[in-house]
Every structure is written in structure tokens, then in C-alpha cells.
Design brief:
This protein has 562 residues and is of the alpha+beta class. The protein is built from twelve helices and 26 strands. The chain has three domains: 265 residues, no CATH class; 146 residues, no CATH class; 79 residues, no CATH class. It is 23% helix and 24% strand. A hairpin with a 3-residue loop joins strand 10 and strand 11. The longest helix has 24 residues. It is globular, with a radius of gyration of 32 Å. The N and C termini lie far apart (93 Å).
Length: 562
């Protein structure tokens, strides 16, 4: 069995946070207010490269004011840092989201209910008793083209690094300082956490002193620290993901640091792109907790179910939500280089929308830098006016299509292409999930890749089985739910079939064989005799014979009356 060890990676430690949380507002234009930011969950994507290096993408979420945002992460090696894209996380999540499908199956043969008709005009009363077997909400089957073919991908080159000549800053070694997307980033090392905190605080990073004891163990272990804060021109409330590439096969998730600024039972999702399934080493691996019918009927959520299961293990457990071939998601964006020649900002925005670019906070940040509205105009209102092609929006105070195009290429299109390549150079994907509260964040998880572990699907099928017999009509027989692990639970005890007369009384009719005073025969329901337990409807000559018999019986009764 081949294994590859690594420390689990990158909780989004948000330090120095304010209490307030902004509200989102609705919008009908291209640029809309972003959703409120909170630290309600963390998502990390790891790419374990063939050359032994690591790519780690981190989706950052926090609660508070942007001006207070600061983030620090210990890593085992000096990383190359670049902006990421939320689409990587959104597409991976959508492709592997736990799905709860239902099937309906009948076993045995139920009694057929009588045909009930109105005693006045012989119109049908009640149902026809027909049912079906099959899927209620089964997913589409996947084909080989839905998965990545990693054999056709060139090996990733991770030789580049942000690190230049280290700068000794009095007890702190600064490996790099530069802007990355909306962030000011610093990569530094220190023997003492106190010296590092002093340097960060002196340089405008709002890192609380309460983090010192936790950071000390990482500093003593020789870890390098990545510190981020929003740059002075970042006015949006959407925190762009970051990507770190490191010459190491270990990814560190300092979950102990996250305890400083978290919410109870915070969901943590980790994706692992490699050539085998990932599993925790020092945490338990919990079998799928899809053993509650409420997951299919909406009375409980998957997160609640996982939380109950991992809480039994003091929060030190993960659930494998998916393990198998990597879904072939597409993340590439259309080129925009030709837009640099446009002198109309409205035309520019409409071209972006036509090419699939979303008016999110990252694009809004770039427009603010390169498209200045007329004096006194609200930025978002002005940009949305342009995007709708309306007259009277006004000429911008300034418009730099060349600078805007270069920024979009570097900060939106390039990260999307890099994310696409990250996914498509790995043939196997694992998705792990857990929830943790602050008091449970005491041990940093460690994972390994293990090619001896089996695949895990994300589609969970519950089968509702109806146990038919001659004592029940179909739909009234006892029913039970069969869960994916084979366990069963009663869904209905059933209702025994009443007499023909009682049944027809319930639906406001009489049995059709007692309808002797009607001028016309009962109308057909259109389904013939019901299909039960796989039998086909009886049609053709049999029904013709029954109809002839009924008409002959009707004629004899009328002739006796005359």
C-alpha cells in the first residue's frame, strides 16, 4: 500500500475581527452587492503534484469590516502566492455535493380495487389504482467524458517562487512583500512569535496578541508565515481566494489557530487532487452517516447529520463525501485582449457579460480602478446603467481600457485558467468534510494518500418498498424505507382493503357491476387494468370481450323492462 503523508491544510484564520456583519442588498444589474461575509465555513483545495510539490487554494471567509481583515497562516516552505477564483470551489462542490435520490419499488401483488362509478351518470369515481416503479429524482448517469484524463496532461512546473533575497528585519526574516489581487502579502520567518507579532503590528497588520501562544509552537518548529491584509484600494467585501505553490508535499492546516475566530460547528471541506484517495491519519474516518431517512425527506440536513456523528468522537473525525475520478469541470474564461481597443465602457461591459464574465466583487474592484464614473455618480449604479446599454449614463471621468484589460487577464482570467489546469492534471479527487467548534480545535489533522482505499460515491439512494399482498390495494400496502446500508425503517403500516361496497362508498360511488340504470357505460380511465408487480396492462380482445359481455347484459335488462 502506497501512502503519502501530509498535514491537512489551511483554515482561514481571521484575526482582529469586528463584531458587525454587513447586510446584502438585491440588485438587477451587472454589478450587485456581495453576500455578507462570515466565517461560517472553510474550504481548501490541495493539488499533490507529481513532482512532490504542493498547490493549495484557500477560500477565505470572515465576519467583520474589511478594514479589520488580517489573516496569517503557517506553511512548511516559502510559497509562490497568486490570486485564485471562487469558481474552483463552487464547481468542485457542485460536482461532488452529497445527493439524496429516491426510488419506489413494489414487491408482491396487491389486490385490484373495484371500479366505482356514479349511480347517476356512471362517470368514474375514485382513482384507477395504477402505480409505478422507478426513480423519483434519480441523477443522470455519468460517462467517461465527464471525468478528467490526467494521462494527457503535462507535468506541472512549480520551480517558480516569490522568494527573492531574504531581508533581515531584526529577529524577523522577510522573504517577500507584494500585492496579490486585493491583498498586501508578506512571507516571513521568525524564531519568536512575539518578534513576528511586533513586526506585523508595526506594519499595519491587525493581529491580536492572543494569538501569540498558538503561533509560538509553529515558530519554534521552523514554519514560515504567510500574512495577508486587504490593500488600501480594496473597497469590496468579497475576499478573493489565494493560491500557494510550495516545494513540499506537506500542507499544514493550523486548526488550533482557527479557534481564535470561529463559529460553533464550523463546516470544513477539504478537496484533495492527486492519484489516490486521501484519508486522515490522526483523525477518525467516519463511514457515511447517510442512515437517517430525514436526509431524503427534508427533516434533517447533511451538516446536522455529520455534526452529530463527529461529535461522538469529540470533533476529531472526517467523513468522505466523494472519492473517485476527477469530474471534468471547465474553468477556462474567454480571452479579453481585444477589448483593450474599445473606447466605450458600456460596450466593454456588455462584451464581458457576453463572454461569461460575472459582475462580482473582484471585477467591480477592477472597474473602480480603471473606469471612474462622472462626478457625483454612484459607482455601481453607473456601471449597471452602462451594462444595460441605456442612454444618458454619462461619460466617465476617465476610462483606461488597456489597464483594465491587463488587470482582468492577470487577476481573473489567469487564475481561472490556472484552476482549470490544477483540476485537469489530477485524475483522482477526494472530498472530506467535518464540523468543529473552537473547543474541539486542539490537534492539527494529518492526512495520507492511500491507493488501497475504495471509491466513495456522492449519490445516496433510498428505496421505498411497498409490500403488496391480496389483503391490500396498491398504495395502501405496508411500506418501508431501505437505506443505502441495507437497514430498514417502517414508513407506513398499511391499510387493509375494505369491501367493494365500502371502498366505493368512500369515493362517492357504487361498484360498476351494480350500475344498472345508466344510459351510457362507464368511461374508461385510459390505463386499462393496472400493472402490478411487472405485469403488462390487459388490452385488446380481453377488454373487447368484457365490453361485449357488459352490453349484452345491459340489453337483456332493458328488454325485460319493456
Amino acid at each position: 500500500m502506497r501512502t503519502k503523508s501530509m498535514l491537512a491544510g489551511a483554515a482561514t484564520l481571521a484575526l482582529g475581527l469586528a463584531v458587525g456583519q454587513p447586510k446584502a442588498s438585491a440588485c438587477g444589474g451587472f454589478f450587485c452587492s456581495s453576500s455578507p461575509i462570515d466565517q461560517a465555513g472553510e474550504t481548501i483545495v490541495y493539488g499533490l503534484e507529481a513532482d512532490g510539490t504542493l498547490t493549495m487554494a484557500v477560500q477565505i471567509r470572515y465576519a467583520g469590516n474589511d478594514d479589520d481583515f488580517a489573516w496569517i497562516l503557517p506553511v512548511p516552505a516559502v510559497p509562490e502566492i497568486s490570486p485564485g477564483t471562487d469558481q474552483l470551489f463552487d464547481r468542485l462542490r457542485a460536482a461532488t455535493e452529497p445527493t439524496f435520490a429516491r426510488r419506489f419499488r413494489t414487491e408482491g401483488t396487491c389486490a385490484e380495487p373495484p371500479r366505482c362509478v356514479s349511480p347517476v351518470d356512471c362517470s368514474p369515481r375514485g382513482g384507477d389504482g395504477c402505480g409505478y416503479d422507478g426513480d423519483w429524482d434519480a441523477p443522470e448517469p455519468l460517462t467517461p467524458r465527464d471525468f478528467v484524463d490526467a494521462s494527457a496532461v503535462t507535468v506541472f512546473d512549480a520551480s517558480a517562487s516569490d522568494a527573492g533575497a531574504p531581508v533581515d528585519a531584526g529577529g524577523v526574516t522577510v522573504f517577500s512583500r507584494r500585492d496579490v489581487g486585493p491583498y498586501d502579502t508578506t512571507v516571513l520567518g521568525a524564531v519568536s512569535a512575539r518578534e513576528m507579532l511586533d513586526w506585523l503590528q508595526a506594519n499595519g497588520y491587525d493581529i491580536p496578541d492572543a494569538s501569540e501562544p498558538l503561533l509560538e509552537s509553529y515558530a519554534a518548529g521552523g514554519q514560515v508565515f504567510v500574512a495577508l491584509r486587504l490593500s488600501s484600494d480594496a473597497e469590496t467585501r468579497m475576499i478573493q481566494p489565494i493560491v500557494m505553490r510550495m516545494a513540499t508535499d506537506e500542507a499544514c492546516l493550523p486548526i488550533r489557530l482557527t479557534a481564535i475566530a470561529t463559529v460553533p460547528d464550523m463546516p470544513i471541506t477539504a478537496f484533495f487532487l492527486g492519484d489516490a484517495r486521501a484519508a486522515p491519519v490522526n483523525y477518525s474516518l467516519v463511514e457515511s452517516p447517510a442512515d437517517n431517512p430525514g436526509l431524503w425527506y427534508g427533516t434533517t440536513t447533511w451538516t446536522e447529520q455529520v455534526t452529530r456523528r463527529v461529535d461522538r468522537l469529540d470533533g476529531r473525525a472526517f467523513v468522505t463525501e466523494y472519492a473517485g475520478r476527477t469530474p471534468a469541470i471547465s474553468l477556462r474564461m474567454q480571452e479579453v485582449a481585444d477589448l483593450a481597443t474599445l473606447d466605450d465602457p458600456g460596450h466593454y461591459i456588455m462584451e464581458l457579460a457576453a463572454r461569461g464574465y460575472a459582475g462580482d466583487a473582484n471585477l467591480l474592484r477592477l472597474f473602480r480602478a480603471f473606469v471612474v464614473p462622472p462626478e457625483g455618480e454612484d459607482e455601481r449604479t453607473y456601471y449597471n446603467c452602462l451594462s444595460r446599454g441605456e442612454d444618458g449614463c454619462g461619460e466617465p471621468a476617465s476610462f483606461d481600457p488597456v489597464g483594465l484589460t491587463e488587470a482582468i487577464e492577470a487577476q481573473i482570467r489567469a487564475p481561472s485558467d490556472a484552476a482549470h489546469d490544477l483540476v485537469h492534471r489530477h485524475g483522482y479527487l477526494t472530498r472530506l468534510f467535518t464540523t468543529m467548534s473552537a473547543e474541539e480545535m486542539t490537534v492539527d489533522p494529518v492526512f495520507q494518500l492511500d491507493d488501497g482505499l475504495e471509491d466513495v460515491g456522492n449519490v445516496h439512494v433510498l428505496t421505498r418498498v411497498e409490500r403488496c399482498s391480496s389483503q391490500y390495494y396498491r398504495g395502501d400496502a405496508p411500506q418501508e424505507d431501505v437505506l443505502p446500508d441495507g437497514t430498514t425503517s417502517s414508513a407506513s403500516e398499511g391499510r387493509r382493503a375494505p369491501s367493494d361496497q365500502d371502498y366505493c362508498d368512500e369515493v362517492g360511488g357504487i361498484p360498476d357491476y351494480e350500475a344498472t340504470d345508466c344510459s351510457d357505460p362507464p368511461a374508461s380511465s385510459g390505463c386499462g387494468l393496472c400493472t402490478v408487480a411487472g405485469l403488462a396492462p390487459i388490452q385488446g380482445g380481453v377488454l373487447g370481450g368484457l365490453l361485449f359481455f357488459w352490453l349484452a347484459r345491459r340489453t337483456r335488462k332493458l328488454s325485460r323492462r319493456s
